[in-house]
User: Fold Transcriptional regulator, IclR family from Chelativorans sp..
Amino acid sequence: MTNSQSLERALQILDLLDRANEPMGIREIARHIGLSNAIVQRLVNTFLEHGFVEQDRISRRYSIGYRAFSLGNSILRKDRMIVSAQRQLEMVASNHELNGYLGRRHGNQAVYLLCVQSVGPIAIRNSPGELAFLHSTAMGKVLLAALDDAEAEAILREKPLPKMTPATITDPDVIIKQVREAREAGYASVVEETILGVISVGAPVRNASGEVQAAMSVAFAERSSPHLTIDNVAPIVVAAADTVSRDLGWSPG
Assistant:
């Protein structure tokens, strides 16, 4: 196994432990990764020595260690976009009872960078680092709108799009039309495409060059929040995203 292959396998182990709901044993890890027990044990021992993995003294099983959390917290503390977005999303959550999210495109999906829970009735089901579909989320459609039509269409036609709810739009032609509208309007919205009863609105976060760096979005339940609509929520999200963009050096106009 080459050095690059060893690194790839090691990262797969960390990713597996991060996604696991409970600690895992060496044989279980080896089965998921497709490596021998001996190789997995060697890699896990290295992580254990440096604090990236912890071992339960009784079960002898492994879970993510404090150093991995420390690295994640370092990003939250030092990344200017994340610090600014955290502040804006907390204000939106407090003032408007809207759950807030920040994410960026990762290939043909979006990855959550922040998830902020409000006192509203919707419980957040996502965590930073988790992936989301581009075609069925407001965040995703904002990120698609940052691409040209050809690139966005290539992503949408790469493979059949999963239908999350009966309302999920999976026709690439229809989604491309929505992406163009989002590009023109400066925000995107989805109605019950990911979770029934939930509406989401998203807006772009731009860097100093005006390029879309990420997307912010909020979600609310239509029945329990009748005072909230796409029309009155969109300006809130756009204003929050624009504030983050200005913190990154962007200037409108």
Notes: The radius of gyration is 20 Å. The chain has two domains: 3-69, 79-247.
